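Methods — Computational structure assignment.
A single polypeptide chain was analysed. Its primary sequence is given first, followed by the predicted tertiary structure written as structure tokens.
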Amino acid sequence: MAFANMVTTFAGAFIFPFLIRLCWGKMCDTWGAIGGWMAAGFIVGTSWTLNHGVGFMVQSGSAWIDMAWAAGAGLFVASLASGDNVKNGFVNIVYAIIGGTLGGFILSCL
């Protein structure tokens, strides 16, 4: 994998959890439950389009990585950096790994 592909892949993996951490909670606080649905559509949709449609993420080989893994790992690191409860963050990353594995398995069956 070329260096430019590594940089864009890292940037694509960074953008998704960054937008979740930055916007999702504020949208839910401002608009309630509908804000959560809007955040899901805008944040996940925009990140997916940038990573897979525009091509920020470049995957070499046959391995396929789900965006849930990037979100879980990025949010866990953000929790560690901000001094949040590490135990809750660990539980969330375990759920992200399970969800990413399940999503990848379901897609591989199609």
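Note: Residues 3-31 form the longest helix (29 residues).
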